[in-house]
Amino acid sequence: MNYAKSKLTNKLVVITGPSAAGKDVVANEISKWLPLKKVVTTTTRAPRPGEKRGVAHHFVSRERFKEMIKQDLLLEYVDFDNNYYGTRRQDLRRPTMEGLVPLLRVDPIEALRIQRHNPDALVIFIRPESIQIIKKRLMERGTSVEDIDKRLRLAKEAMTKENIFAYSVVNRDGHLEETVRAVKRIVKNYLGL
Fold this sequence. Notes:
Elements: H1 3-8, E1 13-16, H2 23-33, E2 36-38, E3 41-43, E4 57-59, H3 62-70, E5 74-80, E6 83-88, H4 89-97, E7 101-105, H5 108-117, E8 122-128, H6 131-140, H7 145-159, E9 167-171, H8 176-191
Helix pairs in contact: 2-8, 6-7
């Protein structure tokens, strides 16, 4: 094992924040520049148009997910909007076998659980500049009014958890490059690069 790989052993990067804060796009962008690999999560929800199995998520039945919980196969999981979402331990190990650092994109409740069990993990909270920006982004996605209301309530709750994490980066509307640069700096420092 070379020095660079050994420096990355046992590292874990977690991106969290409220719905529509820009977690996915930030995670995808920093993965292009740093030795990170996004961990594919498992869910019981149906695939959305264009989502590929094993790329966006591993899609399983509720029964299978409950079996995974009983067998302690998950690092963390959450029940959101009548669907389970979680990270299988085996999926977390895959990036490390390639000499890369696992990158998780999860909600704040999951991030808290991960932080509790992995105190050395780097957790970065991505937040919008306002709740109104979240509403605008959800409307642009074509999200239903009922779902927008639910996600806004959850976003307000998520924002109260921001100070629990060591790092918080504001993803200002129209300033994605600035957000990505800030997150890259934090991750590079954590990885010793």
